[in-house]
Structure formats: structure tokens, C-alpha cells
UniProtKB/TrEMBL annotation:
This is Nucleoside 2-deoxyribosyltransferase. SUPFAM superfamilies: N-(deoxy)ribosyltransferase-like. It comes from Lysinibacillus contaminans. It holds the Pfam family Nuc_deoxyrib_tr. InterPro entries: 2'-dNMP_N-hydrolase, Nucleoside_deoxyribTrfase.
Length: 159
């Protein structure tokens, strides 16, 4: 089983999430070949040089070889590279596990929050994600709300 982990990789927070998620998946799914772009020094050593074409070709090759995509959806918006990877991978009709841990998902049953949103769209207590990207994930996959849930989803897809 080959898998691809998509997330931003430039901030400390993103790199730490990638490390935690990759470690959890590797421990839970023995033998999985998990590609994590930040571990590919040939294209992501920022003291070196890799042009846009070499980055695209390296990542597309790994996406094409993967059986599953694990995509982190956190941040102010879905990382543009992650959204592109989701789009490219969705064309392969293979499963995608989205990982969305934003705490604003909580309280969806809170009537006051819903009434406030209806009364004034600027009082949005919730979070928005691009519906096209979410739809691509849902076509063949699932969106999880924690690292643990994501690991379970990957384990289920491996069976």
C-alpha cells in the first residue's frame, strides 16, 4: 500500500502536524509506503533550488503511484498545494482521507449560533471550506476530525 500525505510544509506547525500524522499512520499500518513531501529533500530543501516543473513532476509521480491520499485541510484556507494535489488525485478515482481538525466545527447544533448567522452573515461562528474541493474528497473518501480518526480511516481503506 502506497500513500501520499498532503499538507503545507513551510511553517513549524504544518511540519509538526505532518510528523505526528505520518508517525501515527506508519505505526498503525505496518508496511505502508507513506510519501511525505517535506521528507523529500531533493525538492523541498529550501537552501537548494528546485524549479516549479521539477516540484510538480516529483509530486505528480508520487500521487500517481499512491493508492490513497491523506490531505490536511486545516488553516485559514485549504493550502493551495494541497487543493491542487486533491484535484489531481481525484482524477485517479482513488480514496482520499481529509483531515480537518478546526475546533469551529463544534457547536453546529447550537441554535444561537445558527440564528446569529441567519440574522447577520458576518456573525459566522463556523468555518468554510471550498465546496468543490470538499466534493472531490467526498466522491471517493471521507473527512475526519482528528489524527486518530484519520488513521482509522486509512486502516479501513487498507483492508
Amino acid at each position: 500500500m502506497k500513500a501520499y500525505l498532503a499538507n503545507g510544509l513551510f511553517s513549524l506547525g504544518d511540519r509538526l502536524v505532518n510528523e505526528q500524522l505520518a508517525e501515527a499512520i506508519r505505526q498503525a499500518v505496518p508496511g505502508i509506503e507513506l510519501y511525505v513531501p517535506q521528507e523529500n529533500g531533493a525538492i523541498n530543501d529550501k537552501s537548494a533550488y528546485a524549479d516549479s516543473t521539477s516540484i510538480a513532476e516529483a509530486d505528480i509521480e508520487m500521487l500517481q503511484q499512491s493508492d490513497i491520499l491523506i490531505a490536511v485541510l486545516d488553516g485559514v484556507e485549504i493550502d493551495s498545494g494541497v487543493a491542487a494535489e486533491i484535484g489531481a488525485f481525484s482524477m485517479l478515482n482513488r480514496p482520499i482521507v481529509g483531515v480537518f481538525t478546526d475546533v469551529r466545527q463544534q457547536g453546529r447544533d447550537n441554535v444561537k449560533k445558527i440564528e446569529a448567522l441567519v440574522a447577520d452573515g458576518m456573525e459566522n461562528q463556523f468555518v468554510y471550506r471550498n465546496l468543490f474541493v470538499i466534493g472531490l474528497i467526498k466522491r471517493n473518501g471521507i473527512i475526519t476530525t482528528s489524527i486518530e480518526e484519520a488513521v482509522k480511516a486509512v486502516q479501513e481503506k487498507v483492508k
